[in-house]
């Protein structure tokens, strides 16, 4: 074994972690309270510098509002047309350049969309399984097959759909409910930050959210990569 090979063996494995929000319209504004509070946590724990953090064994990139510079018509990430949007092109570039070991994609959804997103017939209509409610109307699934295939099967990939109506400051929502939702999403982010492998993170999520098993069963049923 050469000295260079020995040095490479001694180097700690670097996990590249990518968290992206605001792929559509005003989603970035909806998610701002979550990412603002997450910034505060990162600044203390990871010495945040412009959304890019180097910790001992991780490189973490956080992009709260991917679509903030564009005013584009809504196109679902599971539609082939999404890859032709500016947001889609930027996302593809990010995935290719970073080759993340962990990729988290964050969206918001309207209350009226809940049934369509979680309906068992969603696969027949769209080619992707329904999302699963794990807690507090937070929905999870893998990411779009259109770009899931750009990443290794060993890459952890998760879509989080956050209930938009619970983030609004309209005098109707309970502020405590809003803060609880924000803290729960950040708790999931923290699990990502401290996990060193896909299996480790999945185990943590299963322990905290037993309904994750349903998401796994759906992936198996439709012969898709689970997260």
TrEMBL record:
It comes from the Archaea. InterPro entries: DUF2119. This is DUF2119 domain-containing protein.
């Amino acid at each position: 074994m050469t000295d260079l090979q020995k040095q490479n063996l001694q180097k700690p494995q670097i996990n590249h972690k990518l968290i992206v929000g605001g792929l559509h319209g005003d989603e970035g504004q909806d998610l701002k309270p979550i990412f603002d509070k997450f910034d505060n946590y990162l600044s203390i724990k990871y010495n945040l510098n412009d959304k890019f953090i180097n910790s001992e064994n991780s490189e973490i990139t956080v992009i709260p509002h991917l679509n903030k510079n564009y005013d584009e018509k809504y196109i679902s990430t599971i539609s082939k047309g999404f890859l032709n949007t500016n947001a889609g092109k930027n996302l593809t570039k990010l995935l290719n350049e970073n080759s993340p070991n962990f990729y988290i994609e964050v969206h918001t959804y309207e209350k009226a969309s809940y049934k369509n997103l979680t309906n068992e017939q969603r696969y027949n209509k769209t080619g992707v399984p329904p999302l699963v409610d794990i807690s507090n109307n937070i929905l999870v699934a893998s990411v779009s097959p259109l770009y899931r295939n750009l990443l290794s099967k060993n890459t952890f990939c998760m879509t989080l759909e956050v209930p938009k109506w619970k983030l609004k400051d309209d005098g109707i929502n309970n502020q405590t409910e809003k803060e609880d939702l924000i803290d729960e999403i950040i708790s999931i982010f923290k699990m990502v930050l401290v996990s060193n492998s896909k299996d480790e993170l999945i185990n943590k999520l299963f322990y905290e959210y037993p309904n994750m098993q349903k998401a796994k069963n759906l992936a198996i049923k439709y012969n898709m990569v689970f997260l």
